[in-house]
Design a protein that fits this description.
This protein is mostly helical. The chain has one domain. Helix content is about 70%, strand content about 0%. It is built from eleven helices and no strands. Helix 5 runs antiparallel to helix 6 and helix 6 crosses helix 11. The longest helix is centred in the first third of the chain and has 29 residues. The N terminus is likely disordered. It comes from Sandaracinobacter neustonicus. Keywords: DNA-binding, Transcription, Transcription regulation. Pfam families: TetR_N (PF00440).
Length: about 210
């Protein structure tokens, strides 16, 4: 069931982060001011964000790490479970893990935001994104890539690596697009709401790799 940070998370910092993530996803980090975040979070004191996080950039860094850590934990857990069940046998199965673990299983009432946030941020300020991660919180993603390499030993390494780059870009773009559509609650979204859509996304990503 969807959660509403304004009612289920009583601590102000958590609520500010949830509201900021929504605004950044909708407008980009450069399109949102500290004052706007504070007002949207119901903070009468516009210095609340600075008080809790130090700066807008520090808040952005924290949001990057929060989401990346959760996704990485889900991916590693899924990979561990697959290994215990005999291992992954197809590229599509690897893509299923990448897709499913990128989706928030407990989104806020207004919908998922993280993929939109990080995809837009990488276009506008990729150095900030990479510095915030500092090479961490991507072990699950790297394990997935290693699984693909294991499953495609016949493919030249340079070609496979190129296709993995294409796949990664498609993964982020598709899921960001999905979030944008589902955030529009003024109409139905039968394609994105279909229970099979994410499985089809995984198959499409597998096709990028397998050609």
């Amino acid at each position: 069931m969807a959660r509403d940070p304004s009612t289920t998370q009583s601590e102000a910092p958590a609520h500010i982060k949830a509201v900021a993530l929504k605004l950044f996803a909708e407008r980009g980090v450069d399109g949102v001011s500290v004052r706007q975040i504070a007002e949207a979070a119901g903070q009468k004191n516009h210095a609340a964000l600075t008080y809790y996080f130090g700066s807008k950039e520090a808040l952005i860094r924290e949001l990057i790490v929060d989401g990346a850590r959760r996704i990485d934990n889900r991916r590693n857990a899924a990979l561990d479970q697959a290994a215990e069940s005999g291992g992954l046998r197809s590229v599509t199965q690897v893509m299923e893990i990448l897709v499913e673990t990128s989706v928030d299983p407990d989104p806020p009432a207004w919908g998922e935001c993280y993929n939109r946030f990080v995809v837009a941020l990488q276009f506008s300020n990729r150095p900030l994104f990479m510095e915030a991660l500092a090479g961490r919180w991507n072990s699950g993603y790297q394990r997935c890539l290693d699984e693909v390499r294991r499953l495609k030993p016949e493919m030249p390494a340079d070609l496979l690596n190129q296709r993995l780059v294409f796949m990664g870009g498609a993964l982020g773009g598709i899921l960001a697009g999905r979030e944008t559509e589902l955030a529009d609650q003024t109409r139905d979204h039968p394609m994105w709401s279909d229970s099979q859509t994410l499985h089809r996304v995984a198959r499409a990503l597998a096709a990028i790799i397998e050609g």
